[in-house]
Amino acid sequence: MRLMYLCSALLLLILLPRTCQGGNILVFPTEGSHWINMDILLQALHSRGHNLTIIRSSKSWYIKDNSTYYSTYTVPAERIIDEEIITRAMLSIIDFERGGLPLMSFLHFSVGMLGALTEFHTTVGEYVSAIIDDRELIRMLNDTKFDVVLTDPCWGGGPILAKYLNLPLVYNVRWLIPEEAHFGIAPSPISYIPIAQSRCTDKMSFFQRVKNMILYVVSQMQVHVAAKEVYQKICDKYLGPDEDFYQLLIDADIWLMRVDFVFDYPRPTMPNVVYMGGFQCKPPKPLPQHLEEFVQSSGEHGVIIMSLGTFVNELPADMANEIAAAFAKLPQKVIWRYKGSRPDTLGNNTLLVDWMPQNDLLGHPKVKVFVAHGGTNGVQEALYHGVPVVGLPVFFDQHDNLIRLEDRGGAKILTLSTVDKDNNFLKAIQEVLNEPSYRMNMQRLSRLHRDQPITPMDNALFWIEFVMRHKGAAHLKPASLRMSWYSYHSVDVALFLGGAVLLVFLTIFILIRCLCNTMCKPKVKRE
Amino acid sequence: MRLMYLCSALLLLILLPRTCQGGNILVFPTEGSHWINMDILLQALHSRGHNLTIIRSSKSWYIKDNSTYYSTYTVPAERIIDEEIITRAMLSIIDFERGGLPLMSFLHFSVGMLGALTEFHTTVGEYVSAIIDDRELIRMLNDTKFDVVLTDPCWGGGPILAKYLNLPLVYNVRWLIPEEAHFGIAPSPISYIPIAQSRCTDKMSFFQRVKNMILYVVSQMQVHVAAKEVYQKICDKYLGPDEDFYQLLIDADIWLMRVDFVFDYPRPTMPNVVYMGGFQCKPPKPLPQHLEEFVQSSGEHGVIIMSLGTFVNELPADMANEIAAAFAKLPQKVIWRYKGSRPDTLGNNTLLVDWMPQNDLLGHPKVKVFVAHGGTNGVQEALYHGVPVVGLPVFFDQHDNLIRLEDRGGAKILTLSTVDKDNNFLKAIQEVLNEPSYRMNMQRLSRLHRDQPITPMDNALFWIEFVMRHKGAAHLKPASLRMSWYSYHSVDVALFLGGAVLLVFLTIFILIRCLCNTMCKPKVKRE
Lengths: 527, 527
Hints:
Two copies of one chain form a homodimer.
Chain A: H1 2-19, E1 24-28, H2 33-47, E2 51-57, E3 71-75, H3 83-99, H4 102-133, H5 135-143, E4 148-151, H6 157-165, E5 169-173, E6 175-176, E7 179-180, H7 182-185, H8 206-239, H9 245-249, E8 254-257, E9 273-275, H10 289-296, E10 303-307, H11 317-328, E11 333-337, E12 350-353, H12 358-362, E13 367-372, H13 376-385, E14 389-391, H14 398-407, E15 411-413, H15 424-434, H16 436-450, H17 456-470, H18 485-488, H19 491-526
Parallel strand pairs in A: 1-2, 1-4, 2-3, 4-5, 5-8, 8-9, 10-11, 10-13, 11-12, 13-14, 14-15
Antiparallel strand pairs in A: 6-7
């Protein structure tokens, strides 16, 4: 399969210098783990000879000012969500999840987080306003003659900026302020498409479908209140009163979707959605020497790696101790990405690291299990390398992502509320280590995922450059984008035809009645 | 762009001998023009080292018994639609269309053809029964250990046979017994997806949407009566009473769809639909010497080519004379594929041929206009080569296909009822020749169509072999295939939630009433 990827890369090397001579790409990224995968895409675009300009906030906590492969415009921002706020929020979510029921946890997230989300999008809105109000910056952006805007629409600023600058738009997307992106563009029957945080699969019982429908209605209200209204005000101010924000949002030329149908459940899609799930995955590079030595020291038992992602830097002390104690009982070696204070129960077999080359480790033959929080990036990497997962989801889509692996027999999920009880953590790891089906199923998914006519990254690059070459991809946008809801759902047509049928029946009824009356009346007269 | 196709072919040459060592493919084709494009796919599969076995009827009028690249099982068939019947039917349709109004023409087709369609599918059903009843044939088919069944589901026999033999199924498809194939598998909002023969675009007025809805209901009834019931009886007989034919029909692993979104309007699609529109197109080969000499003799004026497809071998004499007379007035040379008797008015500039290398002619720089009936194959070829079209649609989807080109400014449509009046034919050809926008628009569509990360043919071959490698593509089939209509549309959930809301309101109402009664009664007593 590697040969296929190599050949595919070769093909692009032959093809692309001819089809694209290095364009200008304006990038409006989203922070946090979203930046990590945007950054990978940017490095690939840079290696294809494109000039990348990134708009970042002066308070950005991930996006460095300038770099070897991109230049930046730094916008002085009064405030923007920073890493410390996120870390504190994570700890409070973990505390809550440990005590809460799934329903309560959802209500907590939906209602309790509504205020936080509204504030979050308001902050992003202020940031976008600051960009457009900076006349000097806008002049420079206009002068640069960009070919395309590349953005992650988890933040709503990119589409507004693209419209203001009148530029084609490409999404690197999974979430759309913040509903699952497909819901914005493709028909999405709630009967078999699980809503984020529903913890359902695509095969639902009646009451799961009821729950899914309720969650759908709630999430639609959340999106409306927390985001649409906020951004609509900015549209009104800078784009005129006729510009509907949501229409703008779903009018992107190409949607590079960070999933594929080995990971996600098959569902309706649209012609301008390009699936690039696993685009960040690649064959493993050799590990740094100290890591390689540590991994090799595991002997036949192999290695377990654990990471709870970008946001979760530390865990409550008792939970961390429980996890460390479980690891200490295993014959495997453990590499644990953990920034919190060192747990007291940490065994000699466990190495705490601030950061680890996750893709290279997952591709190492000695790595047997991945303990993960279930972020999309990590799950796709586990899937690419065929490594079974013990899932410890924290918030948002993480539980859903892990359910997709569990449903296919490749993962075991623990919840924060039970992970530190009855040796659950230790038992789960031992089960995934000792039951061959977990690994076999992940290897099967890996084979399916890798068997594509073109790699996800090459596909993504092709379509970004397609939009640059053709100044958009209008021919792939459905006419439905320009339709009112009642036209789209044929409500007016149904009413008209229903009325027509009713009229016909009524006419026949009246005619028959008149006929009866006419035929009866003479009798009365005769009498 | 040709370099891209070459490289892509090179890539497949490198990749595919490793990934597929020549499998066994069972082919159940549809006759007529459908066989032409199936044949092209089969030749490509043969060149990739696969063994092809075709099931054909002893009355087949297109599929030859054995060949250098496939072997056949010939089934003695009592009757099957033959070429003569088709030719006669075509002439009667042409006669009708010349006199009819569009609405009448549709009613004629829908109602008048219903009997013919039912008879047609009954004949195919008998043919399938004859295959399954032939125990020796079935034993041979089982012994051959086929990897996949490849079929065109315009005839309903393929899916039944695949199920009977328990084999994975790939479709080479545009029509599904005989509705547009997307309607079988993907959500299809009638508000912007024009029904076959509606002659609408994806931007419809209110009354066009009403018309489209009526046509949709009629076509669904037609499919049900003319085909579903016929094939269901065969399912009941050979697969048991629990097997629903339509569920079987939409359960194919991969749908190789003979359109793309440069030709067709963007619309919802599904993960297991692969677009291979234009897969039959390729760079032109040199013409036979006599044709090349004829083409070159046209000088700066260039050449017009005309073909009304596989089915229309001749036209009514007066219409043929009118067309020939119009051609005779032009300075261009004309190549006309026509099997009828030589029109009296034929000019010296017009060459009548029984057959022409259409793809090679369309790719010739001297060819200026293509006079076509609007079959999918021809329209895709015109689009690939960027040649503007004068359309003369005869029946079924031909007018719709041409409307897709006309809507994008690449074609001018004439109807059979007006083609021979007021020099319409001559005027249309002169307009398309002299107005540069026609050619520019077709060239733009051609550029868009050719700009794909992998050629349609390579994509089709990849996915056929994918199904062979993985014994199906179950992971790409949506869960909706196994759902009842009321679950899929959440009717039960809506009723349940509606009922629950009603119950809550009713309870509140009763409680308030009780409360009022309790609070009012003492007053009454006091009085």
